[in-house]
Amino acid sequence: MRALVVANRGDADPGFVGERLEGLGYALERFEREAPADWPGLEGVDLVLTLGSDWSVYWDHVAEWVDAESALVMGAHRRGTPVFGICFGGQLLARAHGGAVSRAAVAEIGWVGVESAEGALAGDGPWFQWHADCFLAPPAASLLARNSAAEQAFCLGRSLGVQFHPEVNARIVERWAAGGAEELARHGVDPEALIARTRAEVGRSQAAAFRLVDWFCEYVAGSAGRP
Description:
The strands form 2 sheets. The protein has an 8-stranded mixed β-sheet with strand order 2-1-3-4-10-9-8-6, sandwiched between helices. By secondary structure, it is of the alpha/beta class. Helix content is 36%, strand content 26%.
């Protein structure tokens, strides 16, 4: 089985999500968000995984790339190809289907609780978050999770969008903390404490991420009957 992974240049690590997909038999094919001309067609693709980004979907200077990725996920939707959108990927998925994305009232950075509306998502977390934008799920979608800061997960057909980062491991957070030191300082987040908390969480969060991927594959990707 083929899984098409779309991510920003230099940030294409799908972490625990990719690890579990490979364990389930998917071959991951990574492509850069900035180079849509290099993406393959959807013929023979069994799943699309679109990862997070330090972009906002409403920035004018990335509109060409956002439009290309939106066309990709909508093409997948029309074909019935499952899509899993994480953070920016979830925001893009929401916007492409008629939802909204805006600046969040409160940025979420760190390990945060999430409440599952249907007992879905294989548990309520905490899940890792790093976002200053948030989505409103598309009108036709089923809202699956939220917290006091933002809507956190929705599904529409065979697509799932999440605001949090189930994929993160210590290596990913260490890299993000190094590259995002200025943003962390602006929000009063201690990078060493963030990394230490991540190292303490990953044993639990890896198992939670695996359960989430299993749930997605069985109940979202495997279902043709959701709204």
